[in-house]
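As agreed, record minuted below.
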Amino acid sequence: MNKTGLKIILLASLCGAAFSAELKNDAYTVQTLDQSRVELRHKDAGVWDLEMRFCVLFTDKNPRPASRPGEVPNVKYNVVTWENKSLESGAGLDSSQSDYLAVGDGFDPSILEGSRDSRTANLFYAAPQVSVSAERMVHRGSSIIYVFPEHPLFTLRARLKITEGDAPPALEYSFTPKKDGYYSVGYAGSPEYQLEELDEIWQPLLWQEKRFPNKPFMTMAYRCTIPSALITKNGSTFGMVVDPEEYPFEELPVFDNSRFGVAVRNKEGLAEPMVFAPVLGGINSKMKAGQSFSFSLRPTAVKGRTTEAFEYIARRLYGFDNYRKNSICTLNQTLENMIDYGMSRWSRFLEDQKGCSYATDAPGTVKNVSSLNPLELAIAADNEEIFKRRAYPYIEYMLSRKKFLFTTNEKQKIQRPSYTLEGPCAPISELSSLFGIFEEATPAFKELAVQEFHRSRVRNLDVQQSGKSWENALFLYEAVKDRKYLDFAKSRADEYIKQRVEKPQTAFDDPQAGAFFFWTAFTPKFIQLLELYEVTKEQRYLEAAHEGARRFTQFTWMSPKIPERDILVNEGGKAPLYWYLKSKGHKQMYIPEEKVPAWRLSSIGLTPESTGTCTGHRAIFMANYAPWLIRIGYYTDDSFLREVGRSAIVGRYCSFPGYHINTARTTAYEKPDYPLREHKELSVNSFHYNHIWPMMSMLLDYLVTETMARSDKQIDFPSHFIEGYAYLQNKFYGTQKGRFYDYQDAVLWMPSGLLDVDNVEINYISARGDNALYLAFLNESDKQAEGRVSLNQELVSLDSCKVRLLSAGGKASKEISSGDFDIKIPPRGLTAVAIEGAEIQTRFQHKVMGVTAEDAWDKGFVEFDSPAGRAAVLNLGKAAKTVYVYLKDSKEDFRNVDMIYDDGSGKNRIQDDSFPWEFTVPIDSALSSFSFVIEGSGQDGEKVISKEYLLQK
């Protein structure tokens, strides 16, 4: 509020006093208990006692706030710290050690290597403090005025007021220093409890359930998904929420512009929601004597746990709703642009290394996520070039490389890559999916999956993965259909639910979480639990998945509130320059200055990348969680999950947008030509080129899942599972027939250029059937959408075709004129049609879908020694049939390697003159045997010759 106005009200109120007063609206009743305490009663959410008590931190020396690695057991997380030369023993930071993984994009050397001397992360050790409680209260209309004792350092006044309706009260305070210096004013009068008395606590970004901060760490504004800490007792939750007016939108929230911080652990080690504003040493903290500072809070009570409170605060105070629309581009056009980009040189796929350049983080390396990503797009988009130039090389890579990250330079240690072909790095789920996608015609996929189930492996970074997990048992069951694997999966999942879902966590020690780095490790495994539910249809797995998904939303941004106005971006025609890329020699980018609606710039619905990088990576575009939230939201009738998922995807970019929002407000990521530049000319955000195809899978998954939900499962496609690594999970579609209302023969078929709609708010999915084309149109706006659909008659023959409306909502013209027809779609609704009589000739799909288990070779996989390696027949239908042979030896073991093979046409010799040692031989579909010998020439000139090995049908 206006600072002068509050002062006048406070001064005018000093002439009267009252011992008892009551403020009331439709939801809240505030009853004074004495001159400094009130009872806050919510009609549904219990009674909470508040005291008008503040904690004032003061120092006349600059405390130089800065982030440093925190002392959170098992978690890489940076916390705000302060410099204090007068720290008592034990109050400072522990010494830190360098981390070989903490290098590259997202890791700030000034944080990781900065001095820890005379620094503390305990906010109560940051500076001397004064605790002050109100000595007098005055009731005036809908407000209670509080007067505090005069102090030599400051004057403090506060007002608690209530408005009509059911909004939380507002607690406003005005602070005037009497001495120049650095100040921070913390509200410290919330209810406080021992952790054992509470159901749970929450403090962004890290602490959920009963994982209580081990010190009074502060979370600054720029890392508050909602600006509050929360406590839950007896099924109701309380928090002190920063008023939206105190958290401006115009500047991207970063460390330097954070106007406040929140904390849940007080000085005595009790749980208490607190807010400090300004942050000591931060913006507005340096004050002159007589310079006033004011701030406003909302004491908020919500019936339910912290997840319900999170949703309430997001919706009611910070205005979250289903706020996004396409606006700049349809998702279909975005997907087609990404396919073009993914097949271009700009995408930095190094075909000779079968991998995506990972130079952004680890120079000289390549890294792939999953062969299923490009394979899915090749099938769904009916595009053989994607299969030949991306999907097939990926398959060989995932079978052979020891880890996702690979290099031939053994001096490269960043992120600890692999140097040998001792794979598969493909997880069990990927091997199982490949076995199913290609109709069990390649036994090598199954044999490797079974092997991996009985061992452990490090695939990414330094995370050790156990093969014998309930998730892997589920995926293996789906491949081999052996009931013992499903029984194992259910038994272990039931135990997991008891230990992880039903029991609040008190530490970061969940043995099944993997590394505590990406947000999916901090919640129950909602993605895998959903997969188990969809296989078993047993409700307890859906309930557990729902619990995990709700907790995951607490890592999604819900603030600052989006204003209803335009924002100027790219001022002066310059795009923001990311400091990390500037340090690597990247050039400033130039993007036209423009004003755009604020909602287009908002991070709401996205997450930061991880615990270790959230100080810089405010929001990442890789929102692979979004379709999972939508699917769980559909099954559980949870609109919040569905809207969060949708907000993460819609209306954000026209092509691959790079990785994150991190520096300043900009529309650079939106532009269709944004990624079409040389690597050093990209400087707004980082590019992880191995994310390109996973992002396409994410968008396809969104379109299919949103269609499923809007059609109430009248449109539904079977799927496989894409695991990848970290958080990059999505569903795989394209080879199995699904349902399209009363048609049961629908195969997802979405070739580029299939159709055009003259309304940017209309997305679609398409499928083919027997003499039919199925189309579902999705309106992404909050108004009825009308559009003319123009079909590409080079892809679909439309002679004598009719349009049949399938969905209850919406309209479509029955006749097709020159390939065109009209549609109407309800707000954020769906209109589905069948084009009966349409003739479709696939260009590639039939080549994948023509393979059968009868094509499998009985001996289609062999492992060999001296030299060690593997050979497999990859029977991928008419798309490809090859023998793939690779050695496990390093580059130092040989100068070159020859393979002498007989494919029925006589002896053939091929030589590999450079590491990695691998051979690919296309074979005829009629071939029934393949023999080979490996001959390696060592660095010393000695030859190693294997015995002869046989692959046979």
Notes: Residues 8-17 have pLDDT under 50 and may be disordered.
